[in-house]
Amino acid sequence: MHNTSVSVAPCHRPGLFLCHPQLRRLSIVLFAVLAMVIVFAEFPAQAQTSGQARLLRTPTISSSQIAFAYANNIWTVPRAGGSARRVTSFHGQTSNPQFSPDGKWIAFSGEYAGNLDIYVVAAEGGEPRRLTWHPGGDLAQGWTPDGKAIMFASARASWAPIGAPRFWTVPAEGGVESPMNLPRAYQGKISSDGSRVAYRMNNSWDEERRNYRGGQNRPIWIVDLKSYDLVSPPWTDSKDVDPVWLGDSVYFISDRDGVANVWEYQISTKKLTQLTRFTDFDVKALGSGAGSVVFEQGGYVHELDPKSGKEHVVNITVAGDFPWMMPGWEDVTSRMTNMELSPTGKRIVVEARGEIFTVPADKGDVRNLTNSSSSAERDPAWSPDGKFVSYFSDKSGEYRLYIEAQDGLTPPREIVLQNPTHYYTASWSPDSKKILFSDTNLKVWVLDVGSGQAKVVGNDPWMVPNRTLNPVWSPDSKWVAYASRLRSMYHAIFVSNVETGESKQITDGLADAVWPAWDASGKYLWFLASTDFGLRSQWLDMTSYDHDENFGLYLAVLKKTEASPLLPESDEDRGVGTGRRAPAPGACAGDAPAATGENAEQAAAPAARGPRAPVTVQIDFDGLQQRIISVPGVRERQYSELRTGTEGSVFYLESGPNQGGGGPGGSELSRYRLCDRRAMSFATGVATYEVSADGRKLLYRTANAGTGPPVPGAPPPVPSLFLVDSDRNPPQAGQGRINVTLRMYLDPRQEFK
């Protein structure tokens, strides 16, 4: 399945329940899972074996029909099953259908006017009638027992600093909304006699998290609407949701046995009974009416007879004109990610919506190397000899490594990896004989391209949401450096010998050391380190969010006999005829080579570039920690993504206050060079960047082509790419822009098969 972005609405409107600025930071890992759930919820797919439709959501039931949400619209089908009929045909979202007590009407939430409001439509179809007009989002919950009003949840009246939903009612014929006498309520139903309400008090920041046992879980509350007495089913810490009524019993979904199943609580006897015992997929939504319970599980609609305790899948088929399921060309430029340069910057390889493209820097055509709707190709890397592009693909069902000729004219080579999982940070060794990558289990792997065999050369023993290994090759292809956590949760820099697999800790662990980078000369190992990490070391403790972690720039001199590149300097005059013209302040020899004689006053052209000389990295581990130097002239700031360029130069990003990974305005890209011992701004508004294998070209992407916060449901802005010289003067604004459009031929049925 391909990449799918999830647009999270900014926390600016009281009607948006699922906004919490601190909890969002914790949800980085979980958004990948949430993205898959949303995609499968919003796009249709047919079961290939039985012909039944799947991904049927939020069912509700009357004496003769079942209504459900499918492909963003409301459908009905006879209770016995069969061919479903579409009730709404809106191109936006319509959801949460709720039958009226007499089964003649369906209330639902819809976005007809651009906002999530309550609508009602005849069960046989017709024109929906809008009932609410507030800019806050309104989620349909059910009807009052007399069928005269619709109950819905909305956070329209609260702000603390995020909206807390409560129940409201609105007349089915139209009129003014009225709040119910419950200060907070998110999900529930009124009993058939109108005397009680069963509900879930608060929403959760991640509705799909399985077996969550944190403080957002609450028991189902059953409240008498006259006396306001409250009772609850027996509860410890499970996630209990979506309560509905049948007679004197409340039915709800609970994961107290490890999988979300349907449970019954009889109020008169206080008896709690588990009715379903699924062990594969969770029950997702529950509805009741006309003596039966319906629910969604495994993508199917099930009907449950409470008396017998037996359930069955309702055989439902759906047919319709689904334009999003028709094959066609799609612009995927805005989905561009995981970019890398060819060895000398002649082309760019990027991932976009699960396809691998190469883009010319100046002349030529865009190439789609993969052309596959049925699989996801990720994390491309270009071999330094320029011949091959590698990437990971799940076309076999599990992720494997593929190596393909950069022109895409020959079939790729497939390499099966041990214990398949998800993989990250692929990079080729400088000699193009090995590939380095990390995996979900925080292991660092080196794969021999010739034999296809991979071995572990490092790991991080602590799993936290941010992956911080960031392994990198030495320029002679013999060593790998990476950052790994110690028991103190501080990072230390480790170096592993590729041949023996032996790892050595380089830093002492008294500072948080991350982002190792080998100097192109092979003499130094650069890294970032922080001495104020202590208050942020416990990532799950929210008190750590108030403290910024600032880093300084450091380098380790690897060889005992190598002098420090930052020894004190002194100007000495050795007499007439012995001096050489020095570069201007802020410039190095490569920027403006010295001119003499008749050309002394003429602007000199940049020096010609020659091939890199072979490099041998020698590491004397004895006393290495005493050869670590704090680089002067670089203020401690929120730095990240340290990378090396040509000899003696490094680049790094600096994010502004509270921006984390760069924020909507992006980060500042800076360059430090040993030749002038200065840090200077190289580019601004940068989201991420890459340096070519020869160190002479730099590609960066701006953070946001738009001018404001993202609009919910709107496509992401098209990223802007810029390709510039890394070893020359900083580029002017807009210099080196790459104008590119990426298009793929998408077959949705292949994508979601």
Report the span from N to C terminus.
9 Å
The description of the largest β-sheet is: 7 strands, antiparallel
Shape: elongated
Kindly name the structural category. mainly beta
Could you estimate the helical fraction of the residues in percent? under 10%
Record field, number of beta strands: 55
Low-confidence runs of at least 5 consecutive residues: 1-50, 592-605, 658-663
Number of helices: 3
What's the architecture of the domain at 21-308, going by CATH?
6 Propeller
Query: What's the CATH H-level superfamily name of the domain at 21-308?
Result: Tricorn protease N-terminal domain
SSE layout:
Blueprint: H1 21-26, H2 28-42, E1 57-61, E2 65-70, E3 73-78, E4 82-83, E5 85-86, E6 94-99, E7 105-110, E8 117-122, E9 129-130, E10 138-143, E11 149-154, E12 166-171, E13 178-179, E14 187-190, E15 196-200, E16 221-224, E17 230-231, E18 240-246, E19 249-254, E20 261-266, E21 271-274, E22 283-289, E23 292-297, E24 300-305, E25 310-313, E26 316-317, E27 328-331, E28 336-341, E29 347-352, E30 355-360, E31 367-368, E32 377-382, E33 388-393, E34 400-405, E35 413-415, E36 423-428, E37 434-439, E38 443-448, E39 454-459, E40 472-473, E41 479-485, E42 491-497, E43 503-505, E44 512-518, E45 524-530, E46 552-557, E47 628-630, E48 639-644, E49 649-654, E50 667-673, E51 678-691, E52 697-702, E53 721-725, E54 737-738, E55 743-746, H3 748-751
Parallel strand pairs: 4-26
Antiparallel strand pairs: 1-2, 2-3, 3-5, 6-7, 7-8, 8-9, 10-11, 11-12, 12-13, 14-15, 15-16, 16-17, 18-19, 19-20, 20-21, 22-23, 23-24, 24-25, 27-55, 28-29, 29-30, 30-31, 32-33, 33-34, 34-35, 36-37, 37-38, 38-39, 40-41, 41-42, 42-43, 44-45, 45-46, 46-47, 48-49, 49-50, 50-51, 51-52, 52-53, 53-54
